[in-house]
Amino acid sequence: MFTRRHALGILGAGIIAPRAYAQARHVYDLTPIQIADGMWMIEGSTDYFSMQNGGAIVNIVLIEGDSGLILIDSGPSLRYGEALASVARRLDLRGVSAVINTHHHPDHFFGNQVFADKPILSLGETLSAAVSDGDAFADNMYRLLGDWMRGTEVVPPTQVISSGEVTIDGRSFTALPLGGHTVADLAVLDRQTGTLIAGDLVFYDRAPTTPSADLEIWQASLNELEAINAAQLVPGHGPVDKTRAAIPQTRAYLSWLEHTLRNAAREGLDMIEVMDTTLPAEFAGMGAQPQEFHRSVSHLFPGIELQELPRGN
Ligand SMILES: [Zn+2]
Predict the structure, then answer these.
(1) How far is the CA of 25 from the centre of ligand 1 (A)?
(2) From ligand 1's centre to the CA of 14, what distance in Å?
């Protein structure tokens, strides 16, 4: 007898692969990985934004608090936030108790809408930048991701986190107010497990993004993070780092990027010629290359060119 179950089986497996079917319906498939006692990570794709990944390119951390799970970053869209809320409820029936946004880039905070009734904490400058840049970011995300973004509205953080020792939902953190990837980048050290959640100050095996970057301040922030001696580090993008390789890798990439752009400016190359630079093997294999290098050239080269131009008067 042909039942409804058979019909679904044919639809689900025989005609279209489950993952492709989920993509066609714009459903995020989020899998939490336990990375410490009472701590889970959802690891994003290391690719650039695409209609295949729906912008699920960012790392999210969920940490046990007294009354639910503390969420660090909320993803790129309303639908992603909804998927996160159901992951949280599967891990802890009480769901999410508080949200922390590491910085104001849209892949990290556009899921806030789902948690608007909870405290949403960030650095003060992140809050103002989310308000001032949010709509422009949303336009861009709708262009890149289409239907994945349907219904998404910009919900900025609501509370300013203090720096230093803080307690959020009963859990002790050290909040480190840094910057350089953007105007304000929050890194959070979980005292109980020694896990450093670095946001986009650290990328691992995925090319760093630079649309809001100040490379000198970013390098100084990396030095501060390295001095912490964390047991493990969760980068903003890329796998969890237990071997202390991610900070030196990010530093090396940013140094190479700056030297490459300065040399090109001194040699009088134009932007297209710089984009044709062959990437060294250690950076060519990173996720989202060469797109991120090309984006960095377009963000950073005009300013560096101005600095390096011989003064004519
Ligand atoms: Zn970012």
Answers:
(1) 27
(2) 39
